[in-house]
Every structure is written in structure tokens, then in C-alpha cells.
## 1
Amino acid sequence: MRYRRRGLDITSHTLLILCVIVFFLPVWMAIVAATHTQSSLYTGVAPFWFGSEGFGNFLAVLSDPVGRLGTDATRLLVNSTIMALGIAVGKITIAILAAYAIVFFRFPFRMLCFWAIFITLMLPVEVRIMPTYKVVAGLGMLNSYTGLILPLIASATATFLFRQFYLTVPPELLEAARVDGAGPWRFLRDILLPLSKTNIAALFVIMFLYGWNQYLWPLLITTESDYMTVVISLKRMLTSADNLVPWHTVTATALLAMLPPVIVIVLMQRYFVKGLVDTEK
Amino acid sequence: MATFQRHRLTPWILLAPQLAVIAVFFFWPAAQAIVQAFYIEDPFGLGHEFVWFENFARIFTSFEYLRALGVTALFSVSVAVGAMSLALLLAVQADRVIHGAHSYKTLLIWPYAVAPAVAGVLWMFMFDPNLGLLSAGLENLGIGWNHRVNGGQAMLLVILASIWKQMSYNFVFFLAGLQSIPKSLLEAAAIDGAGPWRRFWTVTFPLLSPTSFFLLVMNSVYVFFETFGTIDATTGGGPGGATRTLVYKVYEDGFEGYDLGSSAAQSVILLILVGLLTLLQFRYIERKVQY
Amino acid sequence: MMRFTTSTLALGVACASVSLSAHAATEIEWWHAMGGELGDKIDEIAEEFNDSQSDYEIKPSFRGDYSETMTSAIAAFRADEAPAIVQIFEVGTATMMAAEGATYPVHELMNDHGADFDPDAYLPAVTGYYTSSDGDMLSLPFNSSTPVVYANRDILAEAGVDDVPETWEELGDVLTQVVESDAASCGMTTTWPSWIQLENFSARHDIPFASEENGFGGLDARLQINETAAVDHIQRLKDWQEDDRFRYDGRFDEAAPAFYTGRCALLMASSASLAGVRANAEDFEFSVNPLPYSSEVIDEPQNSIIGGASLWVMRGKSDEEYEGIAEFFSYLSSPEVQADWHQFSGYLPITNAAYELSQEQNFYEENPGTDVSIEQMTATEPTENSKGIRLGNMVQIRDVVEEELENIFSDEVEVQEGMDNAVERSNDLLERFQRANS
């Protein structure tokens, strides 16, 4: 017997569909605006249907310098990709190693190391932004990919999550490996990493989004347009002095900026949800 | 737990990258922030004066700081409550329908991938006082919309954009939580004659409360830090400081006002605040950490 | 075979020219905040200078908006990597000036490095902002503009108005006519409210914005806008807001679209917005008019003050670099280069010669409206109230003032209360600046 009712079902569907539509509305408005010219946008209320430009504005931002930036959106997207991948790969790599050391080894100061790593969880880069900026400037890393990536790797979220996962690995596995004469590196490579595949995929999605969507940090340290990310370029377009907001290019760029992470999340949804829900329950 | 012994060096090699990164980009700057908080310094670093706790005293007596505190609290609560209740409502619907729960998940999950700044830009376009669709609609209803002068409306704008982005995160959790509730429990309640409304409040909701508490903390953290992008791209903390959060103020005082001492002191205060929040989180829901 | 030889040859030539220029020219870094077309123009100016001689090479680089450029220059100075020349917006002047160990005043630089430098050649209304109280030029004005009024003539005609009045009092009547005749739903709007409605209002009426000659006289200057006619002016705007004669539309340039779309009849904005207005006012006739004055406060209005940016020279560079900068600044101030930059960008010329040259070239006749700002700037000798504003932490002070204006225009506070708050909060910042720099 089911405790469901048909009438309720229809209400539920209606409500859900309505919300799906409302959630899509801002994107729809942006898609439509991106197909207009600046002057047709400024004639009155923003249009609800496509304009004359088609993909013209998209092609224009991808190939010509955007706004006052002196660089095109292709470059911005490449920078964002490098940053997001750098953060995702970097964070996962050092996290796998560090968590491995903490869980599978006994050594002096182990707990101190654990707490030193753990405490970084409490302070996102936003809180220590000024001094971090000074350190990075002192190291000559302003306007560089290393400067973009390294400070954001310095939070131990991933390390912590891998530790949680390693703790669930049956001790028999390690015993068996030791009996077979496997050293720590072989155990990591042949047994632990294959076991962690799903977790790595899930973390990859989360960290890729985290990296791609970063705002404050890249805003501060990329003053040269060669290293600017696509999310930051939006802010630069919105604040151009003595000028109208070029909404037709702003919306086109905004859509380009959201496309890669949305594709990643939709394609890897399974891992993403698993990563979120499993690691946090 | 079984461990490797007799490998003295290996753990240090494994830990080295992580420790190096946090030493240079975490502990060093954090220490500098603490030192800087006790100085008044000119922007170029040519002269500075040790002032003990004066920076802190100024902050706590400053109307702007207390206002930013209030703004942050209002903003956090609104976004958390808004995003969570909407998510719960939708998750319950999605859990209830026989077909399509998965499709709805796909159709609702994507805003989570959108950068907060981009979310802000999209909503700002809809509410642009001169061009926006929604602002024009409101004007037709006789409600003038201008978030550049009306603080309440500016706040509403950033809240909406933040809810829009954050809802999906909560939705995923609530849906997973709902789906893990044994159906037999609900069926038993149904046999006892409980209607859907009562079943929700007596069975489902209590079982969801750990998830809810966890989400509450996560949402506050989100509002605290990640909404910086939304605010900076849309309202810039204005009008009249109506949307200036604590993190925004750290940035403004440090990078636009070059008031390094005050900015550092605010960082230290935030550091303590967030530390407390994290401890709370660990105290009540162990092992659930994700920024 | 043939292809092989040509490319080898080309390679050889390339190597030769690279080593030649590396050997000969001293590189001078110039950080600026001009994107887009203005940025291209800067590259062009630098290139022409580089081609005109072989000893120095100016290397311009775009560093984001004004605030970001200043922040990165300061951070770079602290990391010993400062550029030789940096473009700093007018509100950063006091901060740069107070950093005596970091900046090299232009008048000293020009004298030390033997460039022919005649302070009298410059337009005092423009250079005054960047001059010490002794009359020494601290930084070289680069892009300066001043507020003017843009009027939608079609709307005015529809309302039966022929001329844009010169005084605020008359303007009030005219805007009532505009709104009541439904020619437009809003009378006037303004960009940069603090700059136009307070800083410039005070200058134009010869009343102090702050004590100590608006800060030119010393670090102990404090704001005075809560005790002058500026309060009445904000009250006037507030009253006008009630009956739609005034519309508040943001701190920066957000107000411009309200003028372009015909919502507002008048726009008060920077003279450098002329190109933008011309490009966007497709459907209507517009005119450029001087900033109004209040006949109750002053009989003959003073000059307005400038906004924009100037070029600062940083310390810690080699003598060769400074000689190069001196030569470059002379080049930049030459009538031809100045006139070209002025005519291209819409910014004010910085020398008399450039102004005269533009007159000779009939630039103002061919481009009506371009001379309004210059005449408004040069009609009178600047007084201590209209020379400019020289306040520490001015970036923040402007934010504070804008914020309190927003509180006033959104009915959060009464006008006097808002102005008092603005002054109190700003004075706290001034006090702090004084302490950090003494």
C-alpha cells in the first residue's frame, strides 16, 4: 500500500516545475540580453525575446578585448581553467599525501601536525586576506598562476576529508600488504588510490567549482589582465568609468563564466552529490 | 589502526608539501595579521606606531562596525532560513513524486555551480533600476525599485541572489536525508491515520533535524565568506552601508582605505568569530566539515 | 633553400635589433588605469615618445581601475618593485604627498634633472589641485575633467523651456515645469554626488569643504560641510527628490542611463563623459551647460574643481630613469601632444599653449560643448576654496560622504543629521591619517 495521493502528486509537480522555471529566469534574461546590441537594450525594459545579434556578442567577447581589459574572454576562460584545475589537482594531491602520513604512520609530533593542519579549516582566505596579500607580494607572486593557486590550497578541507575516508579502510588491507612485502608507496599506489577513486572524483568536482568561482583573491592579486579570471572580468566591466554598463557583453561573459562549472556539475552530478552527502554525514 | 613502522622519513616527505603551503600561506600571514592589529601604519610602510589595543577599541566603538555586524547577522539568517525552507519544501515534493525526482535534481542543482559574483550580476540585471524586468514590473505595481538608494531593497537583492545560488546545496542534502528515511516508518504512520501534514511534522522533520542543523552552519559560513563576490559585484556594500558585511569591511578598510591596522584587527576578530563557529560545528556534528 | 636564407636573415636582424635596444634604452615603467581606447592612446603616446629619441623607453602597463592601480603601486613599493611613474586619482593625492620617502615631487624632479620647466605655462585651475601650498607642482596632471550639465533639449522644448538656467534657483522652476508638463518623469540626476554636489558646489560658491584651505594648509584639516551652504544645497536636492525634480541614482556613473533613456531631462556629469553622451544620445538633441550656482550664496561663481588623475614619480630609481622621466614629462606637456590628448579624450588641457593650439585648430567650433568645461575652469582665479581638496584618507572620506548622502536620500536621516554624521566620521579618518603620517 502507498501513502501517496494522486492530487498531491500533481501539486508537487506543479510546484517543482514552477520553481525550475523561476530558477531559470535570470539565465533566460541573460541569454536573451546577450543576443541584443547595447543600444537596443537601452531603449527601455530589458527584452524577453532574442535580438538581432545571435551569437555575435559571444564571438566578439571571445575574440576581441573585453571592456577595458585589453584581453579577450578566451584568455580569461583559459586562466580560470588553469586556476580551477591547479587548485583541484594541487589540493587533492597534497591532501592525499598528508592524510596518508597522518593515518598510516606513527611518528613524533604527529598530533601536532594534525592540529596544525586542522586549524586552517577555521580560517578561509577571506579572513587573512591583507597579510596573505603582503606575503604573496613579498614573494613576487602577484600576477602569476602560482600566486593565484597556492594560497587557496592552504586550507586543509581535502586533507581532513581524506583522513575521514582512510580511517574507514579495513586494517586487514594494510596487514595483507605488509605480509606481501609492500612498502608504503606501493600500498598507496596499488591499494589506497584505487579505493579512493570515487572520493577523488567527488572532491575534484567540489574543488574545481571552488577554484573556478573564487572572487576576492583573484580580484586582489591579478591586476594584469594576462592573469585575470573570467569571474573577475565581470566586476571590471561593471565598474568602467564614464561609461554605460555594456549589458550585452556583461551577460555574454557571465554566461560563458557559468557554463564550464555548470557542465562539470551536471555531468559529474553523481560524484558531486555522493561527495557532498557521504563525506559530510 | 595498523600503521607502518620503521619509516621515519617517509611521513615527513608525505607531509612536506602540505606543511610548507600552510606555513607560508597560512601561519605566516595569520601571525602578521595579529602583529599588525596592534599598529597604526601609513600605507607605504614608512612609519608606524604601536598602539596596544586601540585598533580594537576603535572597532568596537565604531557605529559602522556594529552596523556591519548587524547586517551580517540579518543577511545570514535571511539567506539561511530562505534557502533552507525553500529547499526543504522542494525536496519534500521531489521525494513525494513517483517519477522524475532525479530529473528535478538535475534541473535544480546547477545554480550551485554558478559563482556568487555571477549570480549577483544576473540578479542585478533583472533588478536594474533603468532596464530590469522585475524592477519595471514592480514599478507597474506602484512599487518604485532603486537598490542604489534604498538599503532594504539592496539587501533584498543580495539575499535573493544568494538564496538562488545556495538553495540547490540544501536541496541535495534534504533530498538525500528524506530518501534515507525508512519508508516503513511513514507507512506505519499512514496506517495509524496520520495525514501527510502530520506525517511530515511528527516523523520526517525530527529525522531531518541533524541535517538541518548542519546546513544551518554551512549556510552561515557561505553567507559569511562566499557572498563577498555577490555583494562586491552588485551593491559594493551600499547604499549607505546597508549591505556591508564584516568581511566586506575588512576588504574595504584594508584595500580601499589603506587602514592596515584596523583591517588587521578586524581580521583577528573575524578569526575568533569563525573559530567559535567551527568549534560549535564540531561540537554538535562531528566529522562534517566542508567550506 | 630561398626560404631558409630569408628566415635566417630575419632572425639575425631580430637578434641585432633586440641587443641594440637592450643596450641603449633605459626602461621606464608607467602604471596606469586607462583601459579601452584611452589605454590604446597611452600606448600610442609612449610609442611616439620612444621613437622620438633613443635613450629611454617608456613602458606603459594597465593595472585595473584607479583604486586598484593605487593599491598595487603601494604594495609594489612595499615589495621594492614600484614602477617609476604611476597614475593616481585625485583623491589619492594627499596620501601620495604625505609619503615623502616614497614619492618624488615633480617640481624637484624637473629641477634636479635639468629639464626646462616653466610652472607658469600650466593652467592653474588644473595644476592647482596637485600643487603644494607654496605653489610647487607635486605631480603632473594627466587626465582632468570637471562637472558640467548635459541637457536634453527635446524634453526642455516640450516643457516650453528655451534655456538651461545658470542658477539653482531658476533651475528649480524650470524643472518643476518639466515634471508638471510630463515632458519627463524626472528633472535632473547626477553622477558622483560627493564630487559634484558637495566638493564642486563648495568650490563654485567659494565656501570651504574643509578647514586649512581644504587641507592644503596642513594635516589638521577637518571637514566643514555640515556648517555651510552645502547643507542647504543637499536640502534642496532632497526637496526636489520629493516632487521628482531630482533622482538619486548611485555613487558613480550609474545615473547616466536615466539621461540617455529620456527619463531625466538633465544630467550633471563629468566633462569627460561628453563622448559617451554623444554616442548614446541618439534620439534627442542635447546641450552642454556650465554647472549652476546659487545666486543666494554668491554673485559671481568661482571656478569648479577637477577630478581625474595625475602622474606621480616614485623614489628609488636610477638617475638615468629620472632624466628620462623629466624628458618624457616635458614631451607630455608640449602643446602638440597635450592638444592631441585633450582633443582625443575630452580631458582638460594642462597648459595654456595646448588650449590656444586647440583654439587655432578650430577644435571648439567644430565640437560644440567641448569648451564649456574649460571656460568654467578658467573664468576666475582659483581661491583657497576652489583650488582643490587635499585630504588624507580621501578615498574613504568620499565613501563616507556618499554613504551619508545615501542615508539622506533614502529618508534614513534628516539632512543636517546626515551631514553631521559625514563630518564626524570623516574627521575620525582625518585624525587617524594625521597620526599615521606624523
Note: The radius of gyration of chain A is 24 Å.
## 2
Amino acid sequence: MGLLTPELGLFVWTLIAFLVVLVILRKAAWKPILKMLNERETGIAESIAAADRVKKEMSVMQAENEKLMAQAREERSQMLKEAKETKDRIVTEAKEQAKAEANKIIVDAQQQIQQQKLAAMTEVKNEIGNLAVEVAEKIIRKQLSSADAQNSYASLLAEEIKLN
Amino acid sequence: MSFKRIFSFFLLVLTLSVASLPAFANEGAKEAKEGEKFNASEVIFGHISDAHEWHFFTAGDFHATLPLPVILYSPTKGLSVFSSSAFGHEGHREEHEGYRLVDEDYKKELNSKGMGEADVKAMKVGSVVAADGSKVYDFSITKNVLSMFLSVILLILIMTSVAKKYKKNGVMTAPSGFQNAIEPILVFVRDEVAKPNLGTKKYARFMPLLLTVFFFIWINNLLGLFPAGANLTGNIAVTGCLALVSFLVMVFNGNKHFWGHLLNPPGVPIGVKLILVPIEIISLFIKPIALMIRLFANILAGHIIILSIVSIIFIFGKMGANPGGGFGFSIISVAFSIFMFCLELLVGAIQAFIFTNLTAVFIGQAIEEGHHHADENGFDHAHSNEEIIL
């Protein structure tokens, strides 16, 4: 059948045309296009890899930041706690010191009062003694104008000494 | 596009086709004058075979044909080049420089001269023979060759302009325009055809061949769908040539492992070897033959179906006293041929892909490194799934 017998001319022309297209397109089209496509694909892959890397770095940095923040927060609360403790201590110390001071002042005051009281008492005693001596002198001068009286009195005194 | 718009577009096409029917009917009428009956097979074969002139249409006695250069080589007379118009017009063929274009008249003439019936029958209508019966080699720029040259020019223009765009826009710019249409196909051939079949390391060497095969077949399939277009990829010489190219690439790239498995399959008893090796050798040659026939038959069948559907109009028109039947059937016929054209658009791309893919599969088998061997029972499994399909 006519359709199934290949014609030599068409066969040869096809071979020539196909090889010409192959050679021309290989050099002028396929190689540059495929090269460009490869370059683009590697470029895109690299960009994605770079983006991923940056993302990873970002997440690492974020984690670090959070760690730092947590640390800072902890430090702050620590400081607050310490400050409170210091405050409490100072207040307590001040209170105790004040108390001690007050006690000391009270003790001093009492001592002074005691001393002054003692001094006053001594003075009063001295004064009373002096007065009593003066009174007794005056009385004795008057009563001991007689010898009898003198004797009786001397014996009385002697009596008194014994009793003491 | 909404369904309604598609439907109205379809109606418009139908009306226009019916309106243009008188032109077709004219051609039918002319045929009728010659043979009284519409000869569908003659019309169809006229369209699908190669010719020395490009016939566009006939209106009445006017033949719109483009004469093409005839290049002949005869061992006795040497080279002769002349225009095909020297052979005269259809129905009035004449001899030129001792050569004659074979037509039915010439066959009758030869018959009356007392030439053998079988010899005359073997002559192809449309081919060139020497009047003295000597051997002639025909290297004419026929309709198919011219159409192929057009496709080659188109292909080179398109692809170089796309390549230029890549160079102009730089690597990291998104593709635009025609570049955008070509790139997915290119990437598809690379990622779905070349890489899986040839391996990621070796595929680059065969990419130019695969891409050229794919686009060459595809563009010629599409050009063949134009009215009055040449039936290039439905011609066995063309598909045979392409199959030969892929066969030669496969044979010359075959490695030790490939030839070893083919000629001396390891782990096979000698008795089985005697049967197996011839089968393997036959299968080696069947591969390109399958490629050749698959493309040829698919494209040819598409053309024949479309032409047959159109021919039905004229057959019906000739059946009754008036051509009303033809007009009536034309609506169905045109609808069918539109469907067939859409199908052929699909088939054109699919066949180009299949040819490319099978070429890649065959080359892949030839360059495959020995990583599999016959199992302990001596059975060698199929090289790939595609081999089973073949």
C-alpha cells in the first residue's frame, strides 16, 4: 500500500531538517535556556535555604532574648526581695537601736534620779542633823545649866548608846 | 466563559460552516463531473499523501496551487531541477525532461501500452517516474518537505526568541509572554521525561535531543491540522526517520551492561538463551518500529477521520436528486469534525509526548547501569514498567 512505503526524498529531507534543528536549537536555545533554568532553580533554592537559615537564627535569637528577659525578671525580683529584706533589717535594727537607746536613757535617768534623790536625801539628812544639833545644843544649854541635869543626861546618852 | 457563550459560539461556527458549504459543494460537483459518483477515498488520499504541488482549493476550473521545486536524480541522466508546474495542471499532465507525474490518466495510458497490470498498480499516484522506466531518485521539495521547512523556521524563531528573553531578563526574573508558555513544557520534559528515565546524572546530555523531538513532532502535528496543511507526522518516512534517530542514539549510547544483557543474558541456561537472545535482538528493532508506527498511525487516523466526516456531506449530497441531504448532514458533520479537531489537538500533544517519553525510556535502558540481575531462578525481570506496556 502506498501509505506504508516511505519515500526516500522525504526521508532524507526529514533527516536533514531534524538534524539542522537539533544542532541550531541545541546551541541557540536548549543549552542557554536549560542553563538559565538551572541557575534560577539553584538561585531559588539558595534563597529559600538562606531564608530558612535566617529564620532559624531568628528563632535562636528569640529564644536567647526570652532567656535574657527571664533572667532579668528573676534578677529584678531577686533585687526587690533583697531590697525588702534590707529595708526590714534596717527598720528592725533602727527599732532595736532606738529601743536600746531609750532603755539606756531611761536607765541613766533613773540612775540620775537615784543619785539626785540620794544627794537630796543626804543634804536633807545633813540639814536635819545640823538643825537637830542646833536644837539639842539650845535645849542642852538651857537644861544643863544644873549639874544634876548634866549627869542624868549623860547617863541617858549612855543608855541610848547601849541600845544602839 | 459561561456555558451560554460557548454554546452561542458553537452555533456561530455551525452557521458559518453551513454558509461556506457551496464552496465545498463546488469541489464535490467537480468530482461528480469526472466520475459521476463522489470518490471519498480519492479525496482523502489526495489530502493525506505527499504531493509535488501545494493544492489549497479549487473553485470551478480555478486551481489554487503552489508549484514546488522538483529535484530528481537519475543514475543515467544525472540531476534535474525544475518547477512542478512543468508537469501541467491536474487532469492535463504532461511529460517534462523525460519525467512524468503519475496520475490515473498515465496509468491508463501505460495499461493501454501493454505494461504489466501489477507494475502499473504498484506505481504511486503523485510520484514522479521516468518515461523510459529507469530508476529515479526523487529529492523534490514536496508539500511535506516545504511544510517541514516552515515548521523548522517557526521552531527556530520561537525558541531563539525565548532564549533571548532569558538572556535579556536575567536569571531571577519570572518568565513572561511566550517564554511562559514554553517554560512549563521544557521543565515538564526535563522533570517528567528525562530525569526519571535517564537518571539525574546523565539526563542533561540527552535533553537537546528530547526537546527537539518533542517540539518538532508537536509543531508538525499542529501544522498538519490547518486546512490544506501537510500531513507530515502522518507520513511513515518522517516518523521512520525520527524513530531511526532515536534508535541510533540508543544503539550508540548502549553500555556494556545493556549489550551484555541483550546478547548474553546472565544466569540463563544455554537452551533458554538460544530462544531468548533472538527475541531480545528482535525487540531491539521492534522498539523504533513501534515508535514509527505509533506516531504515523495516530496522526494519519486523525486526518482520515476528519476527512471522512467531511466527505459524508458530499456522499449524502450525491445520493438523492438534490443536494439537500448533504446540507442536512453538514450540521452533524461539522459538529463531529469540530470534536475531532479538538481531539486531534490533544492527540498531537500526547503523541509528541509519548514519542519523546519512549525515546527517553529506550535510551534510559541502553545507558542504565547494572544494578539488577536475574534472580536465583534465572528470571530476569522487566527493565521498567514502560517495557511491559510496549
Note: The mean pLDDT of chain A is 89.
